[in-house]
Amino acid sequence: MKKSNLNETNNNHYNFVSFQNFSKRFNALELIGPLNFGIAKNKVTLIVGRSGSGKSVILNSIMGTFKSYKGEIVINGIRRKSRQGYQVNDEMGYYTQMDFLSYDVKLITYLNEISQVLGLSQKFAQKQIEELLQMFELHTFKNKKIKDFS
Fold this sequence. Notes:
Layout: E1 15-25, E2 31-40, H1 55-63, E3 70-75, E4 78-79, H2 107-117, H3 122-135
Antiparallel strand pairs: 1-2, 1-3, 3-4
């Protein structure tokens, strides 16, 4: 599994969501960006970072909640800030950390169930899950219940 950097420029032709020179300023000191990256269609994409690093800003900008930013967000060929920007809303969704707070299921069980929902073969899913657990140093916590994560 390739670990990508959000500042990496991707080929926009293959991306469902494309950030082009995106930046958002909250005050004179706080700036997120500039970011150039893409999110492929029909792929599960994780946005991971420390508290305050801009994960929610990215998601809220994709969903159209934030529109005061510099640069472009293009979703399925439509500029998010355009008049037609709302048309892509029914083509995407996301889970926040809050969605998982009450899950009384082990992490490994949840990841396996999500893999089934996505239609991944068991062999492929197991390989991807193992790589994710290693990448995010969660292997020792795979039997911990999701509701018990902070």
